[in-house]
Design brief:
The complex is a heterodimer of chains A (342) and B (165).
Chain A (H helix, E strand, L loop, with lengths): L1 H37 L15 H11 L10 H17 L7 E6 L2 E5 L7 H22 L3 H32 L4 H7 L6 H4 L1 H14 L24 H26 L8 H36 L7 H29 L1
Antiparallel strand pairs in A: 1-2
Helix pairs in contact in A: 1-9, 1-10, 2-9, 3-4, 3-9, 4-5, 5-8, 5-11, 8-9, 8-11, 9-10
Chain B lengths: L17 H4 L2 H15 L24 E2 L14 H5 L5 E7 L12 E9 L8 H5 L5 E2 L15 E2 L1 H4 L7
Antiparallel strand pairs in B: 1-4, 2-3, 3-5
The chains are: A mainly alpha (342), B alpha+beta (165).
Chain lengths: 342, 165
């Protein structure tokens, strides 16, 4: 029995890993397609029906490109950089509850890899590790453009982590727990946290845009302005890993936002469903709802990217330090007053 | 001083209020604009499958015409080659032999007629110069190829297919 449990966990991990990779892969396709729609264009439509195989072709291209390690670069760190970036992006999904537990006979299978009681802290830890991938890659390239790009990326991520953490503190004051599973269960019915923490959510989503290096805060890359940011010297699949990590990060942060603020796998009429369609189908509908929310957030990420122009670097720092941090602290104070007096 | 025209506008730069400084309403406005475009029909013509109609005076690949009896009109006078600013046309004339009256209209005809499509600028001066109405640029876009020599089009590609009679 013990072995079976481990096997189920292993399968779950592999499935979630594969899903995040496939979602990241098709996010590149979705990004190009959505960008086209937002600009009255068609987008990729040559590879397969409607261009469906475009990500495969892109991946193939990445693998076939020549692997270049500059002679002046630090060989080991040059490889560690992208590995670390994609690894930290992938392990964030471990604590996210994708659905209610499925009951088959007497066996209860939780659709969450692990329910640690410091789930949010774990995610924050992983997110801050992501900076190392960028920093090491930029430093190991031994190129001033890479280094400047890496410094920009690192300072941006560190600045926005503060207000992100502060906005989460206000959320924790409401929920009283750090476990993502418990937070999701508390939102059962219409008690979604977005209704209790609207300001906190706005702060969180702005910080999430900055943390994932997405437009309008995509200064580390700035493909229209810089030579390329921290991955200037990278080629082949090592570059692919950096780009891939960004899309996985977007997927994970969408999942975190859906879990923390938008009720996770909860949907209206959930109890009725659980009573009528059985203990296997109902959680699966919950999983579908969760993914619908995640995809809605990914769509929003892309929607914003093709709408808002990039911030200037001083504007970025002003927004982070002079606006978001005071706002987040104000949010904590308001939440405290709300909890104390109501 | 008297203003020269009454078009002068007095601008006053008011400091932005709190709502404007928060950017959020403007971002929402921008998002609605992009969303409108999201549902707009695109105007792209999907080229190899779909083709835009050429204008009436479009100049494409040349064709050497035949007359109503199916005889080649060209008499190898060389005026097209002379008029060609890109010097793309070359030809060798030959005398019509007895028994070939059904092939060539005049006593002299072009045994070799070559146009270098890489040199041609599709100006249409050759069709204007032609006294026999033998050459017209009424074809499609000249297709691409891999070798330079394959862009020198001979009579096999230029002459109209024979009339079916």
């Amino acid at each position: 029995m013990e072995l079976l449990d481990i096997g189920i966990k292993f399968i779950l991990i592999v499935v979630i890993f594969l899903i995040s990779l496939v979602v990241a892969m098709y996010s590149t396709y979705a990004e190009r397609k959505l960008a086209a729609f937002f600009q009255d264009r068609v987008g990729p439509n040559r590879a397969g029906p409607g261009g469906m195989f475009q990500p495969l072709a892109d991946g193939m291209k990445m693998f076939m490109k020549e692997e270049i390690i500059p002679t002046q670069a630090s060989g080991l760190l040059f490889i560690v950089g992208p590995s670390l970036a994609i690894m930290t992006a992938c392990i964030g999904s471990a604590v996210i509850p994708w659905g209610q537990a499925i009951t088959i006979g007497s066996r209860v299978i939780p659709l969450q890899v692990t329910d640690i009681n410091v789930g949010i802290l774990y995610i924050f830890g992983v997110v801050s590790l992501g900076v190392y991938g960028i920093m090491i890659g930029g430093w190991a390239s031994n190129n001033k453009y890479s280094l400047l790009g890496a410094i920009r990326a690192a300072s941006q991520n560190i600045s926005y982590e503060i207000s992100m953490g502060l906005s989460i503190i206000a959320l924790l004051m409401v929920t009283g727990t750090l476990s993502l599973k418990e937070i999701t269960e508390q939102q059962h019915g219409w008690h979604w946290n977005i209704l209790r923490q609207p300001l906190g959510f706005i702060i969180f989503i702005v910080c999430a845009f900055a943390e994932t290096n997405r437009s309008p805060f995509d200064l580390p890359e700035c493909e229209t302005e810089l030579v390329g940011g921290y991955h200037t010297e990278y080629s082949s699949m090592k570059l692919g890993f950096y780009l891939f990590a960004e899309y996985i990060n977007m997927f994970i942060s969408s999942a975190v936002m859906a879990t923390l603020y938008w009720g996770g796998y909860n949907y209206p009429g959930m109890d009725w469903m659980a009573a009528h369609v059985g203990p296997i189908i109902a959680p699966l509908i919950g999983v579908a709802v969760m993914f619908a929310k995640v995809f809605a957030f990914i769509f929003f990420f892309m929607w914003v990217r093709w709408t808002i122009p990039r911030f200037r670097y001083d504007q970025l720092m002003n927004l982070g330090w002079k606006t978001l941090i005071p706002l987040a602290i104000l949010n904590i104070v308001l939440t405290g007053l709300f909890i104390t007096f109501l | 001083m008297e203003p020269l025209s009454n078009k002068r506008k007095v601008l006053d730069f008011k400091p932005l209020n709190l709502l404007e400084r928060s950017y959020l309403p403007e971002i929402a406005k921008g998002l609605t604009i992009t969303m409108k475009h999201f549902f707009k029909k695109d105007v792209t013509i999907r080229y190899p499958e779909q083709k835009r109609e050429f204008s009436e005076n479009f100049r494409g690949q040349h064709s050497l015409k035949r007359d109503e009896d199916g005889k080649e009109r060209c008499t190898a006078c060389g005026l097209c080659a002379l008029s060609c600013p890109a010097e793309a046309i070359t030809m060798t004339a030959a005398e019509r032999q007895p028994g070939e009256e059904n092939l060539y209209r005049e006593e002299k005809y072009a045994a070799v007629y070559e146009i270098n499509m890489l040199r041609c600028i599709f100006c249409g001066l050759c069709e204007e110069a032609c006294p026999k109405e033998a050459i017209y640029l009424d074809g499609d876009i000249v297709p691409t190829d891999f070798l330079r020599k394959d862009f020198i089009y001979g009579k096999d590609k230029l002459v109209e297919p024979p009339l079916n009679k």
